[in-house]
């Protein structure tokens, strides 16, 4: 007779990429998670599977519903990893079913405050939001540091326009139990001390993090896309968080 300690439940790690990305964005992270004994599930959200995908009418609610379907289908503990814009559906799934989630890991991201949207000023009739030029991203504070020219070329070639309705949609969080879910934030393009100061000062964009019961902040200095610039180090941090 074997014990549950000899055969523990598998820990599922659901990997949600940021805007313009699909499951492919985690291709250099997944093998390390598998070698660590975790079960990674990289996700491609609706409208991001191909440039020709129909993105008309898609909203954040569609991404949340798709992500919930992934979580519901898994047996065993679940760790949600949300990078950048992927933090919005991740935090909504935590809010919808907080007891189902073992831990949340935000990669250069965090949960949006109630009612906030990532790009509320996108035109109401816009269906697509294509990947901006690198200079425009850098100007707006979204660093591509650490990604070489070949990596940037692959990124742009494989990117898919983000559904504009997702970027415009406000976040809705209502269940206070979400604040009890252990949370790790990986600071990549933002120094950890900047985030800690924002939390201490209860700046609006960090309000959700300020109210968490169990918050861990770790630093991985690089650009905004550490799955491209420092995948092995990002994998190590995700493994450590998932094992807590």
Automatic annotation (TrEMBL):
Start and end residues of each AB hydrolase-1 domain: 13-234
Coiled coil: none
Phosphoprotein in keyword set: no
GO molecular-function terms, A-Z: hydrolase activity
SUPFAM superfamilies the UniProt entry points to: alpha/beta-Hydrolases (SSF53474)
Gene3D superfamilies: alpha/beta hydrolase
Name of the protein described by the UniProt record: Alpha/beta hydrolase
Organism: Georgenia yuyongxinii
Organism lineage string: Bacteria, Bacillati, Actinomycetota, Actinomycetes, Micrococcales
